[in-house]
Amino acid sequence: MDNLSKHWLYKEELRWRILASYIWTGVFSLITSFAFLFLWMSSPKSHFYILPIPEYFVALVSLRTWMVSFGISIVAISYVLLHFKTYQVEVKLKTTFLESLLNIFRPKNILAAIFSGVLGATFMALTFALTNSSYSASVISCTDGLADAWCLNEKLFIAMLYGFVFGLSQSMKGLDDDSCTLNFNCVQPSQLQTIRYQFTNNLKSSIDKNYKFIRFFLPAYYFLANHLFLYASDLMGLFSVDYDPVMSPFKPLVSVSVAFSLFLSGTFLLVVKSLSWELLNLFLVKNYSFLLQTLFADKQEKLMVANLNKEQPLLVQHIAFNSLCGLVCNSSACRKQLFDVPPDSSVKDSTVHWNVVANECLDRVRNFNEELKMCYYEVTNGTLFREKKGAKNVESNQPTVNKLSTVTPNLKRRAIHLGLNNSQLHSTSGVGSMLSGDLPQSPSPQIQSVGSVQSPRLWTVQSPMRDTRNSPFIEKKVGNSLMRGLNPQKSFQEQKQIALSRLVKWLKSFSWVIFFFKQQPDRHAANLFSNFHIVRWSIRILSVLAAKSVMEDVYGVVQCRLDQVLQELLELLTSLERNCKMPITCTSPAVVSLVRRQHSLKAECISAIYRISTAFPQQLDSLHLKPEHARRLVLFAEFKC
Predict the structure, then answer these.
(1) Distance in angstroms (rounded) separating the CA atoms of residues 307 and 299
(2) What is the pTM of this model?
(3) Nearest to 171 by CA among 118, 218, 125
């Protein structure tokens, strides 16, 4: 969690936000459980036009219903705790199938998945225990033909097994998408409006997910999990001799009743889980009132500009950027404090708030632009995920020199006129000498040497012909050991590494091995937009401050860096337009949602440049920009872009 628990913002604000999310989740879960009780009491035996209104009110005032509802609220609060331990601020998708498998089997993720499964099983058991029925009892009375005995309730066992497997699968699936990633909003809505607007979408998605899972779970339980039920009965010492399975094609009414109960409870489980995540996300991403100026040294860490750098936890950075963006867009007093210059400072001083904000925002935009350019050039040149063969062995291209030899080789430049004879060389050198104003000189004896062989390389080691001292076929005695040519005996570690590299290369030649190691370019491209929110806020902060500086910047601190701001924005727009034209094969909804962010950034960048160009219509000609960017800026000023 990036040492978030040690940060001052967590100690003063975030821990109370988490506590508030616990309370709100418990309250909404309690209210939702009462609505679920009405649906739970509706069964196929009762007529649909005669709703169980009297029985519902009787069950609503009973102590059993309230106790079970409080238990459901506690499970929902536990889901909030699980979400807080597993949330992500910036999503990073795994680019290979092997990385995804290794991520699943990490101890932290395994424990989170097991905890999610236990919560799901507990939740399903509590929903089945809302009313006194054949689904609520853990054991039931049965007979072995002679006397009564106790048997394990298979309906409750099916519900708990369904909740455990469902929770486990949902937790594992969330490791490879952006479902556990915080969503930051430009506008801060209230809690009640958020729950009301998101409830319908959460209900529809919960019904869809539950239906898709239940149609595979029930056949799998009929063929496989019956043995698990018998094993659990024997483990608990309960009667299981005359076992009659509940899920059977010969009992269609019972099977339909169990399936309907699982459908209702599973949908309720997903609704409560999504509700807990929405509330936690809502409280964590809320803006915070940072200090803009202070005279006390112990409160310097609480300044807005002090929490924008990359040394802070990711959540703190996002909250600081989001809060600053809201203040810059809506508060003229905040902008005035950012434009203010202390009496003992200049407009270019790094301690001025505008310069601190501009440095942080421009650095984020510049780094993001460089990543986009690198990805584009790698894709267009076909070097994405390709091994760098030139950097594999640099020493192999260099001349090999015997370190034990006392003869120092002479590095000579390759002759330019290799095909000319000595007379032509004389004439060529004479023309060059006359042009330079010197007397012609005789050619170098190195060029006239017949005993040397010219090499096509630029720099070569000249050695006379028939020189066999560097031959690899002649053994030499060095000290007390024999060395064959210039290749000394490799150590055991080097031989081991060479053999291991050959083994890996041989294994990668198989198609089933390539499936695990194959890189997915669409996921690599989607990971570029993991810091989408900070880049978008940086663009908006720079453009709004630059546009408002026409009337509010008394000292002219923004105009000193206006060309730099426009330069970075135009560079980013060019990269985004070029990147949007790249064909990407999307393989998952997470990739689709991340890749769509580039269009949002492109629209934000265009709006920012229009905002600045309309604020400075007469001063654009005096800016120092690249020629292509100056031409593009003219089109923006004329509203033709």
Answers:
(1) 12
(2) 0.77
(3) 118
